[in-house]
Design a protein that fits this description.
Chain A is of the alpha/beta class. Chain A has 10 helices and 12 strands. Chain B has a single domain, classed as ABC transporter involved in vitamin B12 uptake, BtuC, CATH 1.10.3470. In chain B, helix 3 packs parallel to helix 9, helix 6 runs antiparallel to helix 12 and helix 10 crosses helix 14. Classes of the chains: A alpha/beta, B mainly alpha. Chains A and B meet through helix 2 and strand 6 of A and helix 10 and helix 11 of B.
Chain lengths: 261, 333
């Protein structure tokens, strides 16, 4: 089942074209890592799918055109984990996570037992239950990131978009988050995460999409996308390629060309 | 105690305080009328002196205190939540300043003297101008920074035009009348003022009151809120027009009453667990308490001197705000 289908997608920020005629479709069960250098258009792609940017072309969510879709209906199909970890007011952690249930409740309705169970499950999966009563603005950066990820999980949508979700997390929580995204995909959802850490992307994603200059330059299994040639051409780096436990290991080593010797 | 029980207790206490202060506002005044007599007179059909004072002077004053206080508290809470900025207040959108300018122009041109409702109507027209300019400048996409900047520009311009009217005022009496009006007061308002302001305020409250859930979602930033199903255009429309209708009407009948919309949400925020949706009702009741209390205080402090309400709220509000900043400085740095 196709959860997301973008075709002929063009986005300009001001006069500058950021995405140029991009085609991408994501099926249920896929954990797609969106990689590419700074300014390649990763965040712009995610934000266009969410209807936060004007675009030309077509974006279908679950087969429905997003152009005429109400924000509330979109929120039942796709959740978003933003790069900025903004929490404006000193509210408790569980209040933040429970915000994810808002699109599922009409008007002034109170949360149901089912809502509470989903919120509890999201907090458990992101390992934030132990500090559910603490004030969210007083947490460390990594704790805040997990709370916000739990919020996105609580929205309980078929598709999850995450913008650099692993930035600022310690290795164990980075791996836990990547595992969780993998589990979500395995349970029949779709996850698209923009990533800068090629090592994590190579090991945990089921598919990588490499963006450069607003276009997709490679798309496929991690081993097919991350090659010495593509890393040199797109990032300008040389990398170590290996294998451990049946999954690829990629670690950037130095700059290509004269600078890297 | 759980958050829900604490919230219910807080709302109950605020309701009780509002009712008490409303009753005090009805019964405190230069004409020393006993409490029971004054309440009886409110509902009497006789056209005697006591009934006249109660029905024509004190009732509109107390009602306006209640309505204006609720307006300032509610709109302050909405704007702080919408702009995610604890310094936001109803004056920020330029609505108070342009409403004042409209009122000042009606005094300056003599219209206010010729026709009793000219002043509040001109003030409402001023509020409409502000809202049209701010909405047009900020565009439909709901960028809060643009709204703040447009509001500051509109406020400054309206302030300059008000100064110009003072500068060119035909005689010192006109200048004095303008100055006194701008200080903000509830003295000598009639039921006509209540009937004029009420529809705008009720419409404004309805628009602002619908924003609870979207404001909760906006805690996580506008993009995350949009991804949770919040229609940012609608939120901007309701916040701007709701503030314009209610605060425009408040300024039109009472002049500018500062610091209530800024300080009240601040005091109450920690007591409602910082949830923007819970702050709305609490802040509306809190604003009503503060304005009613201040309006009783001006009658008690200087009975013969007509101390202006807006002066008192600023004198008490500003140092109090400074204390709040002082207390919060460790968290802010």
């Amino acid at each position: 089942m196709t959860l997301l289908c973008a075709s002929g997608l063009n986005v300009s920020l001001g006069a500058k074209p950021v995405l140029r005629g991009l085609d991408l479709s994501v099926a249920a069960g896929e954990f797609v890592g969106l990689i590419g250098p700074n300014g390649a258009g990763k965040s712009t792609l995610l934000r266009a799918v969410l209807g936060l940017l004007p675009f030309t072309g077509e974006i279908l969510l679950d087969g429905d055109d997003t152009a005429a879709m109400k924000a509330r209906r979109r929120a039942l199909k796709v959740a978003y984990l933003a790069q900025e970890r903004e929490i404006a007011w000193a509210v408790p952690v569980e209040t933040v996570v429970a915000l994810g249930r808002a699109p599922h409740r009409p008007g002034f309705a109170a949360p149901t037992e089912a809502d509470r169970a989903i919120v509890d499950e999201a907090m458990r999966r992101m390992d934030v239950t132990s500090f559910r009563h603490r004030i969210a603005t007083e947490l460390s950066g990594g704790e805040k990131a997990r709370v916000l990820a739990a919020r996105a999980l609580a929205q309980d949508t078929p598709l999850l978009l995450a913008d650099e979700p692993t930035a600022g997390l310690d290795p164990s929580h980075q791996i836990a988050l990547m595992r969780l995204f993998g589990e979500l995909a395995a349970s029949g959802r779709g996850v698209v995460a923009s990533l800068h850490d090629l090592g994590l992307a190579a090991r945990w994603c089921s598919r990588l999409v490499l963006l450069d200059n607003g276009r997709i330059v490679a798309d496929g299994r991690p081993g097919e996308v991350l090659t010495p040639q593509t890393l040199r051409a797109v990032y300008g780096v040389e990398a170590f390629f290996g294998e451990a436990g049946g999954a690829p290991v990629v670690h950037p080593l130095d700059l290509s060309g004269p600078a890297g010797g | 105690m759980s958050g829900d029980a604490r919230y219910a207790l807080l709302i109950t206490l605020l309701c009780a305080a509002t009712l008490t202060l409303f009753a005090l506002s009805l019964t405190v005044g230069p004409a020393g009328i006993a409490f029971a007599d004054s309440i009886m007179a409110l509902f009497s059909d006789k056209a005697d002196g006591v009934a006249l004072i109660m029905q024509e002077i004190r009732l509109p004053r107390a009602l306006l205190g209640l309505m204006i206080g609720a307006t300032l508290g509610l709109s302050g809470a909405v704007l702080q939540g919408y702009l995610r900025n604890p310094l936001a207040e109803p004056g920020l959108l330029g609505i108070s300043a342009t409403a004042s300018l409209g009122a000042v122009l009606s005094i300056y041109t003599g219209l206010a003297a010729a026709f009793a409702l000219a002043l509040p109507l001109a003030a409402l027209a001023g509020a409409v101008v502000a809202v049209v300019v701010v909405q047009a400048m900020a565009g439909a996409r709901g960028n809060s920074l643009l709204i703040i900047l447009a509001g500051i520009a509109v406020s400054s311009f309206a302030g300059a035009m008000t100064s110009l009217a003072l500068n060119l005022s035909p005689n010192p009496f006109a200048a004095l009348e303008i100055m006194f009006w701008m200080l903000g007061s509830l003295t000598d308002r009639s039921m006509t003022h209540v009937w004029l302001a009420a529809p705008f305020m009720l419409a404004g409250w309805a628009m602002l009151g619908a924003l609870g859930r979207p404001l909760d979602a906006l805690t996580l930033g506008s993009e995350t809120a949009a991804s949770m199903g919040v229609d940012l255009k609608r939120v901007q429309f309701l916040a701007v027009f709701g503030t314009a209708a209610s605060v425009g009407a408040a300024t039109a009948v009472a002049g500018a009453i500062g610091f209530v919309g800024l300080v009240v949400p601040h005091i109450l925020r920690p007591l409602v667990g910082a949830r923007p949706s819970r702050l709305l009702l609490a802040s509306a009741l809190g604003g009503a308490c503060v304005v009613l209390a201040a309006d009783v205080a001006v009658r008690l402090i200087a009975p013969g001197r007509d101390l202006k309400l807006g002066v008192l709220t600023a004198i008490v509000g500003a140092p109090f705000f400074l204390w709040l900043v002082f207390r919060a400085r460790r968290r802010l740095t």
